[in-house]
Every structure is written in structure tokens, then in C-alpha cells.
Amino acid sequence: MQSHTLGRCQNQTPAVSMMAGVFGSTLLICAAVAGAAGPPPGIPTTPDDYFQRGTQPGELVEPIVAGAGNCFFCHSGYDIEVEPYRPWSASMMGQSARDPLFWACLAVANQDADGAGTFCLRCHVPNAFLEGRATPADGSALIDVDFESVSCNFCHRAVNPAFPTPGDGPVEDDAILADLDLLDLIPAQGSNARYVVDPLDARRGPFDDIPSNPHNPVPILVSPFHRQAELCWTCHDVSNMLLLRQPDDSYVMEPLGTAHSTGSQDDMFPLHRTYSEWKNSYYFTLGGVQHNGRFGGNHATGVMNVCQDCHMPDQAGKGCGLPAFAERPDVPQHSFIGSNTWGLKAVRAVDVDGNGSPDFPDSQTGLSDETVNAQIARNTDMLEKATDLTLTQIGDDLRVRVLNQTGHKVPTGFPDGRRIWVNVKFMDAQDQITLEHGEFDFATGSLINPEDTKVYEIKLGIDAAQSLATGLPEGETFHFVLANTIAKDNRIPPRGFSNTIAIQNQTVPVGATFIDGQHWDDTLFAIPACATQAVVTVYYQLVSDEYITFLRDANVTDNRGQVAFDLWDDPLVGNHGGPVVMDMGALAVSFAGNPADLDGDGIVGITDFLLLLAIWGPCPPGSPCPGDLDCDGTVGITDFLAILEAWG
Fold first, then answer.
1. 501 lies in the same domain as 619
2. Who is most buried in 245, 313, 328, 509, counting CB within 10 A?
3. In this structure, what is the dihedral angle of CA atoms 551, 556, 560, 565, given to the nearest 10 degrees?
4. Mind listing the pLDDT tens digit for each residue in 558-573?
5. Is residue 505 part of a domain?
């Protein structure tokens, strides 16, 4: 500890270092010595702090099969929508280890806490973790095969970590879990990358009617786990194990140098909770929701229940191209449909060393123009179906209602940078914008007036105690490793939302109120006097300008932040986070009140006249201009005459 801390804070004396027994004291001492120069020192964590139960590095008897391209020969080349290989390779599951945004985030995480990246690599590069190459935490030990990301062999060797076993899985799982139990390695829950992987290469899948085993002598095992949401739970409930939940629902740092005291995600700080959001919905509590073909592809009933129903929609065709395998109506599409519409372009374009050649050519990634365009179309379609929009005039207000049609919050997933916002344009009789809310600058990727915009998002934060310990300012933060509070979460919950369950599973709204069962949100916008129509657009942005700028500017380790920013900024790649239109609608509106009553007191009098004088002149484009009574874009003499005419 002493030598490590001295490496972080060169002017610290050994005596002072010995006194700094807890991380907060160490950081405060370093900050006092270093002053304002440079970033605050990182938390001096060790691998013990990030210990998670489940299969550990070096425990595989047979390694993860190298070369997902081996699967190509039988599972590709016959139908881009049905075959498993090409949709997988064009998903972010197939490219998670190559994603330049991930690498930019990883660098900052390692700056904030020593070795934090090893935890991140567990999900994004599981093969590297299982083979012991997730340390160093910066990924410098990775080899070519690790970049196959969440590979075929990894997923199809996954074992349900529930112990004792539910009894519906392969009998081989009993012995695997019993061995882990002897070593006290059964995870408390199946989340936080605490996966259990068969030490031997036995391939698991959900079907019990496979006509033959082309993998022989490698066995094929029937695994109901691969149809269950709990498989996705593995990496889609993520928690910070450095923090411990308190009785008042605040979070404080655990002692350093040891694993989390309970090992339960319920006692860790929630970074994202997509699985838990699903469990707090009718999709789980009532066994599903009928969507009549909106999601699910060729699904037999249209009732969406588990993650795979929507994100691996059923296709009619062959899961294997060999002649012995007949067509079936329920081949799960391995596209893992989501919301990322530019990540694949970034993977193809990334050039960290700046030598003019892509770091990951298509020959390595399995990507092509065809597969990338197909996946972008799938993800765009998913975003367009994720919400519905209704517009209603209530008095002199426009009510904009956004309805969540998914099985989790919208947006969901990783907290930083993802947002949905509502753009409202009030148009006059000449189809000119008289007022706009949620205006977006497509040239810079930023909201022009964010304080005047309805934005659905989650923002992490740092409380006063954590601020004192880390030297970072109290309030909202993108330093997710150091965050210990939720500053905002007004994302729209799914059907069947329960506030009671939300308290239990750490998905409580912050800065917004939703009653039990509510899966929509309403916003009222005052209708300007000159408006005759409202045009409303709901946008989704995967990466905000604030977040990508943070990744660029906070990185003092390497150029990964700048690389990610440049890709985001490139109109042919990221196009500023790729704002996607989720919904659009229009409604004829009219102002029912007296436009001359500027102060709204029911009388047109001297105060209205004074207000008119105060805003005399041209109206600001797209901004409220209540004194423009004749709707000509200027507050002037004709508006003054209109005030006189309406006097009284």
C-alpha cells in the first residue's frame, strides 16, 4: 500500500502514508499535497476488491474454442436474417471487445480506481477473463482471440448458476455447481458477470429435437437456461461492489483490500438494472404482455415474456445449414437487437495508432456492408417500436404523452450518455416556427436549450461525503466508478411498474413520480397565441455530446477518448451519437384565451401595456413572444393597437 500510494502521490512521506489507513484519508492527503495540479488520485483498489464468485480464471479444463469463425461453416451463408453467425457478428455482443467507446470508458475507469477495468473486461471480453488475461486492467494482455467478444462458445457453455439446480437443466450442471459450492464460489445472484461456465466443451442450447450432433464427440446438452431472462441477467444488472448500501439507502465505501461484505447486488450501488426493471413489469409478474407482432418476429403467440422474445425474435428457417436440419418456425435470431445504430461503423473505422488502416478489418470482425446495414435497420426498427406518442390539447396547453412499449425502462442500459428527448415545434398559419422546445443542433450533437427540454435519462452523482473523499465536486458525474448516488432517473417505466418493488430492486425514479402501473409520461407545453399546429418528435441519442466530451477530456492515460470523440463527431460514422426518430406526430391547435391579456389576470390593462413595451421589437426566433399579437414576428405598433382594442 505504501509504495503504491507513493506512486500516486510523489510528495507523500512514508509516515503520512501509514496514517492514511482508509481510502478517503489517503485521497485527501494526496489532494492536499498536490493541490489543484492534475486529476485526483485514483482509489488504491486491488483485485481482491473486485472479486466475484462464479467460474474463476484458470478453471477451464478445455479453453473457450478459439475462432468463432469455426461456427461460420455450418451456421452462416444461407439466410442473413435466420442463420446465427452473421447476425451475431453484426451485434454489439459480437463486437463488445472492439467497441471504441468501451475502451474510452475503460481508461477513465482505471484512472478512477486501480484495476477497475478487470471487472469491465469480465463482460466485454469474457474469454480473456477466464484465461487470466483481464489483468492488467487496461487490456494490454489481450490476444487476438479475445477480441471475439461474447463468443458463441462462451454463451453456449454457460451454466445456470442457481444452486441447488432448478432440476430442469442438464444433469452435468449438478456436478459443476457442486464443485463450485465446495470452493464457496456459488454467486449470490446471477448478475455482475458472475457467470458459471462448463469447464469442458459441452454445447448447450434450448432445443430438445436436434436431429443429429455434428459436433460429435463434443456433446450437445438441452438447457432451458438459454430461454430464460436469467441468462441475460449475467451482464445486464451491473453493480459497483466497492460500495455498500446503508439502511437509509445511501452508499458508502467498503473497506479496501477485500471482497464485498455481502456479495449481494442488493447491497451494491446500482450502475444499471435492465433485468431488475424487467422483473418489475407485467412481462415478468403476469407472465408476459400481448404485443400482436410488434416484437418477437415469428413468435407463436405474440406474448412477450423474456428478454429473448424481443431481442432474439423468432425466425422461420434453419438454425444450421447442414442438410439434416429442417426448417423450423422458431429459430432465435442471434442479432441481439438493441439501440446502437453507429457502434458497428465505429468498430470498422477505429484506427487507434493512426496508421491509416482500420484496427479491425472485416476479415477479423465478420462484418460487411450488408450485415452492418441489416443490423442498423433492425435496431432502428426496435427504437421506432419502443414507444408510442399521443398528442392532446387541454385548454391552452398541449399534452405530450410518451408511452413505453418495452419490458424495461426507456431508455435502459448503461447510464452515461443515453437519452430520449421531446422536440415540440409550434407552427403558425404560414408554417413558420413560432416556438420550439427541445431544439437540437445536428452540427454539434447538442441540445440548444436543455433547460427548456424534456429529457428522459439517468444521471449518476456524488454526494457530499464522497466528494470530500474523492476530491470531485458534489453533484452529477460521469465518473461511474466513483458515483454513489442517483442524481436523476426520470426514465419511463414498463407496464406493471410497482413503486414497492422499485425500492427493493434499486430502480426508484428520481426527480419524477410514476404511480403503480404507469408506463407513460405526460408533459404540458403552453400553446403560443399564434400557433395553429404542433409538430412533435421523440428522439433517441446513444451518446450525448456531454458524455463523449467527458471521455475525451478526462482521459489522461492514452488517446482512446480522443479516438472515440472523433468517431462520434464523424458524420459518416457516429454522426454525433446518431439521433434516431422514435416517434413523430402533429396536431392542429388553437389558443383559446385572450392573447392581449399578457399577465393572465383576466383584464387587459396597464400591466399588459407595460409588458408589451418591455418586449418591444423583433421576436427571438423559436422563443416565446407573447406580445406578438398579430403574429408577424415583431412586437410593434399593431400589437399596441390590439392591446387598446381589447382594453378592459
1. no
2. 313
3. 40
4. 999 999 999 999 999 9
5. yes
